[in-house]
What we know:
Helices cover 19% and strands 18% of the residues. Strand 2 (40-42) and strand 3 form a beta hairpin. Residues 1-12 have low confidence and may be disordered. The chain has one domain (23-78): Alpha-Beta Plaits. The longest helix is centred in the C-terminal third of the chain and has 10 residues, at 60-69. By secondary structure, it is of the alpha+beta class.
Amino acid sequence: MAWRQPDRRPGTREGQVRVEVDRDACEANAVCAGLVPEVFDLDDDDRLHIQVEPVPPGLADAVRRAVASCPKAALRIVP
């Protein structure tokens, strides 16, 4: 098997992660915002916003926990 360069999005470095929101599934329960307010924010219309992309390395583990804690599974980590 040949070695391949990992696929990366422009502007991100290896090891960095981004978060995507499934807007149809998100019910604005704010579990993620309560766990990592530096990354997740709900506006006055209960619409979730990702404050920083890519996620800072020091917050990556907390963001993974927040994604796993979403009651509607509306968040996912993308490389």
